[in-house]
Specification:
Length: 275
């Protein structure tokens, strides 16, 4: 009876590893932990390929649970979004970023992901600016990463919010470039500063002729639109060298550095400064 009940009532396939009860437990833990500092910013370095210098970090959220498990955003962001709490979580993480990065070299920019769901909030830009102002953190050091999914449900409203964020001095990056729909239209329409080439292209750039040509075309497109380029998902020296040859400006990936805690980030910055 149990197994029948299971197959009838679970909304997820067993392969997704989550029953309805697991999911409810996760949601309840999440609501409790949102009030503490259990959701922490981790930081992955972004490196300039010509100089080898760190030019900034992408903040990637991690959930450090009481049982010691560290949960990645793939598992909790969708739930936080469904519960209507993603805006709250983002502002909380942003606040922590302002504290963490206050003593880092001032030329480093910190990239922060904005969920498409947040573009339903007409006050998004004002809320972000309020945190930066309160913390005395310069908006030009924040780069907001937006995917094209942000534009699907209400493109006009999203465009207004994006322009407002830009006017407050923040940098804007189009994330996961190449995987969304009608990418080129959005690139021309919106005030982006950066384009992030999705890892699905970058992964094979050194071995696959097609991936190589696609990445080359994306870099040329970005150059002609005066956008800077970040290649995501660099996992080997050979990919890195191919990107260098292609004239890609910045890159990010496990080969260059994994997402790490604030403490490890500070250690990394100290050791790279003394070099
Ligand atoms: P993303 O914005 O595309 O972030 C890049 C993801 O690729 C991160 O996964 C990062 O850890 C991973 N990555 C970096 N280098 C490599 C590599 O060399 N190889 C491979 N295979 N992966 C690499 P992560 O941290 O699990 O985050 C997954 C997604 O969750 C992010 O994708 C982003 O869309 C979302 N996310 C993370 N933090 C936040 C957040 O604070 N707010 C929102 N709304 N979304 C977030
Ligand atoms: Ca991102
Ligand atoms: Ca991405
Ligand atoms: Ca992604």
């Amino acid at each position: 009876a149990k197994s029948r009940g299971r197959s009838r009532y679970s909304i997820f396939e067993p392969s997704m590893g989550q029953s309805l009860a697991d999911r409810a437990a996760l949601e309840s833990d999440m609501r409790i932990d949102l009030c503490s500092d259990a959701f922490r910013p981790y930081y992955q370095p972004i490196v300039n390929l010509a100089s080898g210098c760190i030019v900034g970090f992408e903040m990637l959220a991690r959930w450090e649970r009481a049982d010691g498990k560290i949960i990645g955003p793939g598992q909790f962001i969708p739930i936080v979004e469904e519960c209507g709490l993603i805006g709250e979580l983002m502002l909380k993480l942003l606040e922590q970023v302002c504290v963490d990065a206050a003593n880092w070299p001032s030329e480093l920019t910190i990239a922060i992901n904005v969920s498409p769901v947040q573009f339903r909030d007409p006050w998004l830009s004002e809320k972000v600016l309020a945190v930066l102002t309160r913390r005395g953190f310069p908006s030009r050091r924040i780069s907001l990463e937006i995917t094209e999914n942000a534009l699907i449900s209400d493109p006009v409203a999203a465009q207004r919010i994006i322009e407002s964020l830009k006017n407050q001095g923040m940098l804007l990056a189009l994330d996961d470039f190449g995987t969304g729909y009608s990418s080129l239209q959005h690139l021309g329409m919106l005030p982006f500063d950066k384009l992030k080439i999705d890892q699905s292209f970058v992964r094979n750039v050194d071995t696959d002729e097609n991936a190589y040509r696609m990445v080359m075309a994306m870099i040329r497109l970005a150059d002609s639109l005066h956008l800077s380029v970040v290649a995501e998902g660099v996992e080997s020296r050979s990919v890195l060298e191919t990107l260098q040859k292609l004239g890609c400006r910045d890159a990010q990936g496990y080969f260059l550095g994994k997402p790490m805690s604030m403490a490890d980030t500070t250690i990394l910055l100290r050791s790279s400064q003394s070099k």
